[in-house]
Amino acid sequence: MNGIIEIIENLFSFSYEKPWFFTEINFLLIFSLFLFGYAFFDNKSEWRRIYLILFSLFFYYKSSGPFLLLFIGVIICDFFLAKSISKSNGTKRKIILVLSIIYSTSFLLYFKYTNFFIGNLNNFFDTQFTEANLFLPIGISFYTFQSLSYLIDVYKKEILPSEKFTDYAFYMTFFPHLVAGPIVRARDFLPQINQPFSLDSILLKEGIFRICIGFTKKLLIADYLAKYVDLLHDNPTGFSGFEHLMSMYAYTFQIYFDFSGYSDIAIGIALILGYRLKENFDNPYGSFNITEFWRKWHISLSLWLRDYIYIPLGGNRNGVFNSYLFIFITMLVGGFWHGADWRFVFWGIAHGLLLISHKLISPYLPKKLLFSNVLGLLFTFHLVGILWIFFRATSFEASFMSIEKIFCAVDLNEFIGFWTARPEVLIALGISCLIIFTPKFLKGLIFDKIKSLPLIIWPFIILLIVQLVIQLKDQEVQPFIYFQF
Q1: Where do the domains of the chain lie?
Q2: Most CB within 10 Å of its CB: which of 61, 120, 177, 325?
Q3: What spatial distance separates the first Cα and last Cα of the chain, rounded to whole Å?
Q4: What SS3 class is residue 394?
């Protein structure tokens, strides 16, 4: 009896230090049990949607505990606010939209930016305000943007508000994308709710394949690179310029494989459940310029910023200068969305200036020449990598010190010593380069060949990947990087 009580207590407990995520063994076991129940419901059954909503809420509870109540409150209020917007006209309609936006963003501003503003007040005005002891609810940045897109689209009459509360709750709570994206638009997802596709062998293989790819990216590449990145940034002054350069490459690949790995798992799980999420990455490090990079990196955020910040400001309709100003403002918002720290603001500003610079010089750049494309790819990759340092370093001082060492103190003769001391880092970097820079069409051919294998072979593929993950993964699985955003 005590054993059963202990199992139930563990099942319904949560930890701020160790939130639930896809690579947790407990999640995988409980999700497997959930799938057995899910399969018993009819494909279009209302009870099947309610069953999935309840599991999604349980998933969020295991990630953020009592902040589940806050999330439910946002869902309920947004549902009725959207209906009020739809039924109103003129000034009243605008007022309700503004109030809706204020309400939806208020929690994000409070939990994510309160201490940022308090700290800056103390620094600039020599005040003595005490910073609050706040926990950032996981996924709040993502579900806030999702909520805002729904309210704004209803206001613009691009979609109708959900008639049924369960439909809107399903859209907001759908757990695969809930805590780290992709940011899902109501216009893309709501039509699927009452028309989920039936899972056939092709979709099942695609879903399993995406999940396996995601676990491989996360556990076999990103987490291995993270160990070296963490080691260096715990004591950045104690490492050479060459080691800082390797750390820059390691984090550049780590953040991509970590985040795209999460997106792959989310898309794969959604497919198995009967729904399709949009792609969030399109080989961004294969971009020939910074504009192309932002079309391929975190696509759901890039499109959200374009549609709800850049275009409403005026887009490219009000002259060249204003277009560049709006790009700058949009990327500033994007940087600030990522974190309550001046390093993220600087990162957003830097990318805004790079986008503007590219638009200014692009008419004078050679087109479709192999040499210029290779140079553009290498230049863009290294620009992006240098700026990722501001994401990972613990301070501005550490960021600039790392960049200074990379530009002024790299000794390539250290390669042999580095290989002797840390061969696993260079092997992981080599594998990362091979995956990233293999031509897209060739990767597509390989993936299509794998997915065309008979379904009977797939259990053996899964067992092989599971065995590799168990044997090669690090003992301590790192939380997904974008959980902190």
Answers
A1: 2-193, 201-484
A2: 177
A3: 41
A4: coil
CA distance 81 to 272: 32
Residue 477 has pLDDT above 70, yes or no: no
* CB-based burial, 344-381: b 16+ in 10 Å, e otherwise: bbbbbbbbbebbbebbeeeeeeeeeeeeeeeebbeebb
> How large is the average pLDDT for residues 99-108?
92
Distance CA 284, CA 297 (A): 5
Q: Which tokens sit at 192?
A: 């699927």
Q: Could you confirm whether 177 is annotated as catalytic?
A: no
> Is omega for the bond preceding 423 within 30 degrees of 0, making it cis?
no
User: Of 282-286, 288-292, 372-376, which range is least confident?
Assistant: 372-376
Say if CB 247 and CB 165 are below 8 A apart: no
Share in percent of the chain as helix, strand, coil (round to 5): 75, 0, 25
Among 161-175, 305-319, 428-442, 459-473, which is the least confidently predicted range? Answer: 459-473
Check residues 441 and 462 and name the one with the higher pLDDT.
441
Q: Where are the beta strands (DSSP E) in 340-382?
A: none
Nearest to 254 by CA among 217, 211, 302: 217
What pLDDT is attached to residue 484? 64
Quote the pLDDT of residue 485: 61
Question: With bands split at pLDDT 50, 70 and 90, how would you rate the model's confidence at 77?
Answer: very high
Q: Give the number of C-alpha atoms closer than 13 A to the C-alpha of residue 241, restricted to the C-beta side.
A: 11
Spatial separation of the C-alpha atoms in residues 257 and 273, rounded to whole Å? 24
Return the half-sphere exposure (C-beta side, CA atoms, 13 A cut-off) of residue 298: 18
Rounded-to-integer distance, Cα 380 and Cα 285, Å? 8
CA 73, distance to chain mean position in Å, is 24
Structure confidence at residue 479 (pLDDT):
66
For tokens 């929690």, the residue is 107
List the catalytic residue out of 244, 298, 338, 358.
338
Residues with Cβ within 8 Å of 155's Cβ and at least 6 positions away in sequence, in order, are 85, 93, 97
**38-49: per-residue pLDDT in tens?**
888 877 778 989
